């Protein structure tokens, strides 16, 4: 038992010794990361505000009251006060200088003629400067270092009590108690500030991770939807390749073998796509059995929106031509999500939807709503994906189009998508 206690005490003392000789800070000034230059200079101003009066007052008191030699008094006063400026960047090193000077000053004054009836071994100036130093230490150094500083302060006071118990008064106990209080308060405030800073950093990281997760989920959802589109084309290729020898009897043998190879490759691609869909599908989710929607069902979205209490009108070109299936699906989803956002964020706002080609190979999808009027009910069957603009941007990026969104001067909102009607390299 005693051996375990001794080992624990030895480890603790060794840790405190290492902490007292190893500053935790990299030499960065207190407040160095503040945005304002005035805040960065403030610690230096405070340190100089302590040193400027303490240095001459300490010299005067040591010479006139304690009858210390002028040269010795000047050296002691400088060592006891000037390192307070160093404490802004290196408080532990400054403590070693000041603590050594304070202890040396106590022994110097012990042999002086003016000690009787005056505070010893610490002068009032020493107490003020030491407490200012404790403030810098508490804001920078580790808890072990602070405990070591406090214990060293108490040890020095105990030594002076032993050396001259009649001269040592309550000032040794006063400095010991006050230094401990300042160290505890500043360390607590620093710990709270660090905890709040870490919390803000964690919230920022969590928000970024949440946005990233939302983006990945929406991409996976789009990929699952486009599986049907791609699978349809691959199925058509397979059927055409398999039936080519029967539809074209005069095909040479080389062409028949080529079509058979194409059909086999298409079937293998379909099998790989099914495996990919299993990976993309969420655990426990079932595959969609209904065909993917397109622009032919936009009118149903408008009707559902009107039933929810949002006045909406549709302008759909009569002849859209041959719209690629991916663009057809993306345009539908963009309108669906835009209408869902109107119901959620601008209930009762008059909304206009326009879908028409521009004659240059692009399909323009426009959803414009005015300011909110009144609260409406949720859209039946058209609540969107819940990912809003994220999903719209991903669908537009997938098809090689462009998206323009933003508020209107009257308080409404505008969603404008431009999707290619032909095949793009993107």
Task: Identify the notable features of this structure and list them briefly.
Heat Shock Protein 90, 426 residues, ATP-binding, Sensor_HK_TwoCompSys, 12 helices, alpha+beta, 63% helix
Describe this structure in words.
This protein is of the alpha+beta class. Among the domains are: 2-168, no CATH class; 295-420, Histidine kinase-like ATPase, C-terminal domain (Heat Shock Protein 90, 2-Layer Sandwich), CATH 3.30.565.10. Helices cover 63% and strands 8% of the residues. The chain has helices spanning 2-21, 37-64, 70-81, 83-86, 91-110, 124-138, 143-163, 170-247, 253-280, 298-307, 325-345, 389-399, and strands at 312-316, 351-357, 362-369, 402-407, 413-420. Strands 1-2-3-5-4 form a 5-stranded mixed sheet, covered by helices on one side. The two termini are 75 Å apart. The model is unreliable at 374-386 (pLDDT under 50).
Helix/strand/pairing category: alpha+beta
Order of helices and strands: HHHHHHHHHHEHEEHEE
Number of helices, where a helix is a run of at least 4 consecutive DSSP H or I residues: 12
Query: If you average the pLDDT, what whole number results?
Result: 82
Q: Distance between the terminal alpha carbons, to the nearest Å?
A: 75 Å
Regions with little confidence, pLDDT below 50 for 5+ residues: 374-386
InterPro entries: HATPase_C_sf, HATPase_dom, Sensor_HK_TwoCompSys, Sig_transdc_His_kin_sub3_dim/P
Catalytic activity: ATP + protein L-histidine = ADP + protein N-phospho-L-histidine
Organism: Streptomyces showdoensis
GO molecular function: ATP binding; phosphorelay sensor kinase activity; protein dimerization activity
